[in-house]
Amino acid sequence: MKQVLLERYGQPEDGVRCAEVADVGAPGAGEVVFDVLAFPINPADISMCRGNYRLKPALPATPGAECVGRVTAVGAGVSHVEPGELVINLQRENWTQRRRVKSEDVIPVPPGLELRQAAMLRINPPTALLLLTDIVALKSGDWVIQNVANSAVGRLVIRLARARGVKTLNVVRRETLFGELKTLGADACVVDGADLGEAVKAHTRGAPIRLGLDAVSGQATARLSACVGERGVICNYGSMTGEDPVMSRNALISGGQTLVGFILGRALGTRSLDQIRTIYADLGEQVRKGILSAPVEKIYPIEEIKAAVAHAQRGERSGKILVAPNGPV
Ligand SMILES: NC(=O)c1ccc[n+]([C@@H]2O[C@H](COP(=O)([O-])OP(=O)(O)OC[C@H]3O[C@@H](n4cnc5c(N)ncnc54)[C@H](OP(=O)(O)O)[C@@H]3O)[C@@H](O)[C@H]2O)c1
Questions:
Q1: CA geometry: angle 312, 315, 317, nearest 5 deg
Q2: Cis status, amide bond into 295, omega within 30 of 0
Q3: From ligand 1's centre to the CA of 152, what distance in Å?
Q4: Whole-angstrom Cα distance, residue 320 to residue 154?
Q5: Is a pLDDT exceeding 90 seen at residue 110?
Q6: Ligand 1, residues 120, 240, 321: which to mutate, most atoms within 8 A of Cβ?
Q7: Does the annotation mark 53 as catalytic?
Q8: Average pLDDT in the 44-66 region?
Q9: For position 242, which CATH number holds?
């Protein structure tokens, strides 16, 4: 079977290759084997290939934080999934054609879910949801500001916030995205820049912003903080610049603002397996109904992993880059 191997840290497309490896074999007791049908290339996968991610496994390693698969066989004692069912995998190393994992690591996805969207269900939808529920107790009518608003997470935040009556101020790098984001439910859109604080006031008419969601880091964090009100919270959950977040002393000391971090694994780690399955069942249902989705720009075969990884690093994409390791999806 084919599998992506990361053989050296550095420029991602130089470090990965599609290799022929031994098959995973039949499932043992309590195990599940599934064919990987599709996986996205996420910013965290790119960071891992660069060697900048919090996880830096010994090489060669197989990247891939998420995927959707179809179960081909289950071992003795496995009852919550059956051959033929679609599943997402809570474990990593998914840039491959086939996986054999512990049964508790796979979560069935609702039948009828579009495969491309199912491939992106594991990480970004719960991230967007928990960013809105776990950081600040938001009420209907509250404002949230976020950068990377046109990213997959950003678009999901817009939809989920709108459903709660929470207003979103969406910071992007180009004005041409405004119409698309407003159609999704964005209340206001602004282009990032030195005068962000002033531009934002014109939209909120002075209403305080309680939460800032930052996945850019560096000075972009300080620019979001300049828009958030006294005692507001900035939540840093990513770094598209590769820099650490910057906040002014003034915002922290005089403004009483707080800078916190978010990572999905820790947020899910505070929940029981039943609660986690409920979150995915609910988000999966919203994806199935088309309420939540992430656009896709291109799908590559696994043999073209180098081109796929290079494409995923381009700015101004219209959507995610996916790989379909077992034929077109
Ligand atoms: N902490 C967690 O648990 C967690 C979970 C999921 C995702 N994340 C983070 O969430 C962020 C978005 O992920 P995603 O999968 O939704 O991304 P995505 O759909 O691949 O989109 C990437 C976004 O980053 C923007 N971008 C790229 N380089 C940038 C730069 N130098 N400065 C400002 N913006 C830049 C792009 O804007 P343009 O269109 O203008 O190029 C685009 O909006 C990433 O940082 C990711 O690591 C964190």
A1: 70
A2: no
A3: 8
A4: 13
A5: no
A6: 240
A7: yes
A8: 97
A9: 3.40.50.720
151: domain range? Answer: 124-265
At 210, the amino acid letter reads R
**Atom 8 (ligand 1) nearest CA:** 238
User: Structurally, how many domains does the chain consist of?
Assistant: 2
| Residue 158: inside a domain | yes
- Is 131 in the same domain as 106? no
pLDDT of 8-51, one tens digit each?
Answer: 999 999 999 999 999 999 999 999 999 999 999 999 999 999 99
User: In the chain, what's the furthest Cα-to-Cα distance?
Assistant: 62
Q: Give one word for 254, left, alpha or beta, with left for phi > 0 and alpha for psi -120 to 50.
A: alpha
What are the residue ranges of helices labelled H in 22-166? 43-50, 115-118, 124-133, 152-164
Taking the centre of ligand 1 as the mean of its atom positions, its distance from the CA of residue 75, in whole angstroms, is 38
Strands 68-74 and 31-40: antiparallel
Residues 240 and 254 in one domain: yes
Q: How far is CA 320 from CA 2, 83, 294, in A?
A: 22, 29, 7
User: Which residues sit with their C-beta closer than 6 Å to ligand 1?
Assistant: 42-44, 123-124, 127, 148, 150-153, 173, 215-216, 237-238, 240-241, 262-264, 315-316, 320
Residue 270 lies in a domain: no
176 in the same domain as 115: no
